[in-house]
Amino acid sequence: MSDHVVGYEDRHVGIMWKGVEEWLDTTEEEDYIPMHRIKYFKRRSDDHIVWDREKRVDEIFGSGVTGRNEPT
């Protein structure tokens, strides 16, 4: 997951990006990102969105409109 970032909505700034490892290791309340604010996961290497809440794209778990085995 080191090649992935999570996109989340900051109430004041808009979409912000954070490395998945940093997001998973967050334990401080002020840095915590609630799941309802998470909008995207994307690969850093090619900027490809692999999970998009609004468009229901899911190339990670295979749920939503596009699954892991379907071309995007």
Question: What layout of secondary structure does this protein have?
Answer:
Blueprint: E1 4-10, E2 14-19, H1 20-25, E3 38-43, E4 49-52, E5 57-58
Antiparallel strand pairs: 1-2, 1-3, 3-4, 4-5
Features of the shown structure:
single chain, 72 residues, mainly beta, five-stranded antiparallel β-sheet, 1 helix, 8% helix, globular
Describe this structure in words.
With 72 residues, the chain is mostly beta strands. The chain contains one helix and five strands. The chain has one helix at 20-25; strands at residues 4-10, 14-19, 38-43, 49-52, 57-58. It has a five-stranded antiparallel β-sheet.
Number of helices: 1
Return the structural class.
mainly beta
Shape: globular
Please state how the strands of the largest beta sheet are arranged side by side.
Answer: 2-1-3-4-5
Report the radius of gyration as a whole number of Å. 13 Å
Overall mean confidence score, pLDDT: 86
Strand content: 25-35%
Cα(first) to Cα(last) distance is 20 Å
Q: What is the total tally of β strands?
A: 5
The multimeric state of the shown protein is single chain
The level of helicity is under 10%
Please outline the major beta sheet: 5 strands, antiparallel
Order of helix and strand elements from N to C terminus: EEHEEE
Low-confidence stretches are none
